[in-house]
Each structure stands twice: as C-alpha cells, then as structure tokens.
Amino acid sequence: MNIRSRISSLLLPALAGVALLLSGCAQQRELGWCTVAGAGIGALVGAGAGFGIGEAAEGNSGYNSRVTAGAVTGAVVGGIIGGVAGHYYCDPIVQPPPPPPPPPPPPPPPPPPPPPPVREKLVLRGVHFDFNKARIRPGDAAVLDEAAATLKANPGVDIDVNGYCDAIGKVNYNLALSERRADAVVDYLVKDGVDSARLHPHGYGKTDFVATNDTAEGRAQNRRVELVPEQ
Fold first, then answer.
1. What b/e sequence results for 73-91 when a residue is b if at least 16 CB atoms lie within 10 Å of its CB, and e otherwise?
2. How far, in Å, CA of 144 to CA of 152, rounded?
3. How far apart are CA 54 and CA 52, in angstroms?
4. What is the largest CA-CA distance in the chain?
5. Rounded to whole angstroms, how far apart are CA atoms 127 and 122?
6. Using CA atoms, how far apart are residues 170 and 224, in angstroms rounded to an integer?
7. How far is Cα 133 from Cα 174, in angstroms, rounded to an integer?
8. DSSP output for the chain
9. Which pLDDT value is given to residue 119?
C-alpha cells in the first residue's frame, strides 16, 4: 500500500467520525480550553500515526517527503478530530439568556370615592301652630330643645328654617304668616344656644303640603316649620 492510500485510509474515517460527532451534538458550546487541548493531543497522536504510516510505506529508504507528508496529514487530521471532540465533550454549553421577567401586574383600580355624607333633613312635625298664629306653644318646647341639641352637635351645617301654612286664607297673608313662624323658631333656637348666623328663615306660605287640607288634623300638620340642612 502506498502512502497516498494509507493517508486516505486515515483521513476518510476521521472525517466520517467528525461528521458523526457533529450530527450528534445539537447543543451549542463555547470555544474554550478543551478545544485547544483536544486539538493539541489529536495533532500529536495524528502526527505520530502519520509518521509511522509514511515510514512503513518507505521501508528502509530513509527519511523523505512522504514521511513528512504523512506526519503533517496525521497532525492535521488528528488536530481536527481532537479539537472537535474536546469542544463538544468538554467545553461549556452556551446558556440561553434568561427569559425576560413577566410584566408587573396592572395596579388595582383605585377604590371608588366615598359617597357624600347624607345630611339629615330635620322635619319638625311636632312643632305645629294654632290657626292664624305664629307663637311657639309651651308644649312644643321639648321638641325644639332636642332640635337645638342636634344643631349644636353639628356646628358646620347651615340650616334653612322653612315655614309653611295650610290652604286657608289669601296667598300674600299666608306668605307673611309663614315667615313669622320661621322667625319664631329661629328666635327660640338662638335663645337655646344655636348660632344665629347658621339659621336662615324662609316663608313659603300655603305650599308644599304634607297632609290634606280637607280635615282640621291635616291642616294642623301643614302649619309647620322644617329645618333643612343647606347643600
């Protein structure tokens, strides 16, 4: 067997082995010292094998170019195989970059604003007036005292003091009468300690009835004063 046949017999299996090795290595690796070391070792082993093959082919004719070619070819092939083997068996695997962190969850919706405080409408239905009168009756003092305590407990609220009449009589007369009734309630509350600047009397005459005017009892309920917190 001549030197060319021997080199071919060495090169073809080496290349086939490299191809098989590459086809079986799917993971990408970094190029590191294992590649260098494998190439060096493979080159030394390949050079020795090629030198031996070349020397055997020449017999006793001594050292010549065929021996050198065999050694070089063996070193190249061995270096390739050794480098590839070292790289795919020993070099560190390239780690994929970590996935991006998930987006932060959206902030919770702001809580709905609290409902506005409901201001109590104080209807002094217990404070009634005699027909065609604007005087506070002695029996109504307890009701007005309770109303005064409530107003003093809520000092930040201004109050509309609204006076009303029943349906008997002329419009203008009842309007003036309802104003006097509102003023009478304001005077009583101020004497009981309520700030007069918070009290705003109004007379609405014979309007906004809360009961029928067909009975004496209904008309008595319509002769009233309401305390309404201002909005």
1. bbbbbbbbbbbbbbbbeeb
2. 12
3. 5
4. 154
5. 12
6. 17
7. 11
8. --HHHHHHHHHHHHHHHHHHHHHT--S-B---HHHHHHHHHHHHHHHHHHHHHHHHHHTTS-S-HHHHHHHHHHHHHHHHHHHHHHHHHHSPBPPPPPPPPPPPPPPPPPPPPPPPPPPP-EEEEEEE--TT--PPPGGGHHHHHHHHHHHHH-TT--EEEEE---S-S-HHHHHHHHHHHHHHHHHHHHHTT--GGGEEEEE--S-S-SS-SSSHHHHHHHSEEEEEE--
9. 55
- Tokens representing 28 are 């990408």
Q: pTM for the complete prediction? A: 0.49
**Cα 151 to Cα 157: distance, rounded to the nearest angstrom:** 8
Contact partners, residue 48, CB within 8 Å, separation at least 6: 71, 74
**Total residues belonging to the chain:** 231
Q: Return d(Cα 142, Cα 161) in angstroms, integer.
A: 18
Which residue type occupies 23? Answer: S
22-69 pLDDT tens trace? 554 456 766 666 666 666 676 666 666 666 666 666 555 555 666 666
